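Possible regression after last week's pipeline update?

I re-ran a chain I had predicted before the update to compare outputs. Posting the input and the new output here so someone can diff against the archived version. Not blocking, just want to make sure nothing changed silently.
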Amino acid sequence: MQAEKAVPIPKRVFYGFDRMSIGDSFFFEELSEVERCASAAYSYAKTKQPEFKMTRRKVDGGYRIWRIR
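New output (post-update):
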């Protein structure tokens, strides 16, 4: 494997889980986007707020992830 030069680091996405109320949601058009958000939510809950829970569903036009606890 060879190292690559001058590849920019992608910017971090801040979802604002700390400002979400139960019932708030995010909409994503791509499955990969909702999976990234779900992974970030899991990490947030594990490190900052253990009672924080989210669920995701396929909806018309994409995917939605809701805060449920």
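Follow-up from reviewer: compared with the archived run. The mean pLDDT is 94. Marking as no regression found.
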